[in-house]
Amino acid sequence: MKMIRAFIRPEKEQEVVQALEGAGFPSLTKMPVFGRGKQKGLQVGPVHYDELPKTLIMMVINDGDVTKVVSLIMDKARTGFVGDGKIFVSPVETTYTVRTGEAVL
Amino acid sequence: MKEITAIIRRDRLQETKKVLEDLGFPSLSIQSVDGRGKQKGMVCDNDLDPDLPDKFCTSVKLTPTPSSYALDHALPKVALFVPKRMLTMVVPDDLVTKIVKAIIKINQTGKTGDGKIFVSPVESAIRVRTSETGGEAIA
User: Fold this and answer.
1) Residue numbers in A near B81 (CB within 8 A)
2) Which residues contact B19 (CB under 8 A, 6 or more apart)?
3) CA B59 from centre of chain
């Protein structure tokens, strides 16, 4: 299993979530975060914005679905301008469902 | 080292913390998150009160929290999320099973919405104060 962590624009969240739901991946966790990228934030005139609001979408999926989910998120979250976000994929060894106590996704 | 990420009900947080403390693991990070599972965020009151019977679920739908963006822009169809607590802790390999079992035991109500636990590998840990690395850093 793999954990997908996607940092996306907050205004793209609904679109991404609904696209994922449509493709059969309704389960996810989201949280508001603040971050910046290699542009060191935003410079608007004299004002420098260093901590930009983003939404972090976290989901754990089977290995075979990674490419599909990643391309889906990329497709929906992309605007073509800096600040579209990043997606990280990391390994997950075991998943437990608390309700049943079983080690299944 | 392994990272345990547990997404649990809000009202079980204090008990979970207590149990982990009794096991000798007081160190953890807690985050307030919104989540959904297979049920797509459609919940009933038993997310807040796990003692309610399941059939209550089908008749009464609690209003979950659409994102503030969705509310502000009055989107016609919004994805629904349920408020949850996410615990993150990094523990030595041999204690993973013990901690996972303890979390499951205290959080299990048998109703949907009990949450998930993810175990993933962590390469290294460093304590900022002393620069200790590896096992010493999380001891």
Assistant:
1) 30
2) B102, B103, B105, B106
3) 26
The one-letter amino acid code at B88 reads T
Asked if A98 and B116 touch (Cβ cutoff 8 Å), the reply is yes
User: Do residues B118 and B33 make contact, with C-beta atoms less than 8 angstroms apart?
Assistant: no
- The predicted-structure confidence for B42-62, as pLDDT tens digits, reads as follows 655 455 555 555 544 444 444
Q: Does domain B2-138 have CATH number 3.40.50.620?
A: no
- Asked whether the whole model's pTM tops 0.90, one would answer no
Between CA B81 and CA B71 the distance in angstroms is: 13
Considering CB atoms only, which of A14, A95, A96 is closest to B104?
A96
The residue extents of the domains of chain B are 2-138
Q: Tell me the C-alpha distance between B35 and A30, whole Å.
A: 6
Contact A28 B36 (CB under 8 A): yes
Euclidean distance between CA atoms B1 and A55, whole angstroms: 28
SS3 state at B80: coil
* ipTM score assigned to the predicted complex: 0.85
